[in-house]
Write a structure and sequence with these properties.
The protein is mainly beta. It is built from 1 helix and 18 strands. 2% of the residues lie in helices and 52% in strands. The longest helix has 4 residues.
Length: 229
Amino acid sequence: MRWTIGWALMLLVGGAVATQEAVAPPDPQNPVGENLATPPDWRVRLDAPDPEVVVGDDKEAADIWFVNMTPGWHVTTGPRAIFWHPGLEAEGAWRAEATIHLFDPGERTEAFGIFFGGRDLEGDGIAYDYFVLRNSGESLIKRRRGSETQVIRDWTAHEAIATFGPESESSVENVLAVEVGEESVTFSVNGAVVATLPRAEVATDGHVGLRLNHHLNVHVSDLSVSSGR
């Protein structure tokens, strides 16, 4: 399967565009579609729109290789993009968690992680906040509104962030979590809190998904949203 980026922005069911009905969240153990095929129920949006970009399961032809790989999904990026499933939304008090395995990034320190509070993800008014890591052992919290971005909390190092280095085997694993309470939002990596912000300073209700910068090779073995405590 291969998409141009225009196709990637549509949810296809039986060959037709789906109506706005409730959609079950993705299950990393039982993804829709075959293993090593591009999941038909996900959507992709590039930071810089390009109708020539191909999202697919043919490594030779795809600019973004995006496939089911149980448990979860594997992505090799060309350009920067967000990836989301229409059934993965959060509101009120909630906890989002993603387990991301980073394969050898070479000398690059490109960001990877999750976005949340996503709205109008296919339109000009696209909006979301995001929590990402890079292989320097640092995390960042940032905001996108349309074509503009704003730093909420700049790159900050923390010993809990796992990095790929000479002693690493095939990949390193990081578990990112965003937990929204009544008054604050907590950001953690591998169980350690790396930042806490007032809820009023963070977008909370909306779609949750993945944000991956360019030229990354990652496996996402879990992505989920649960009710907050």
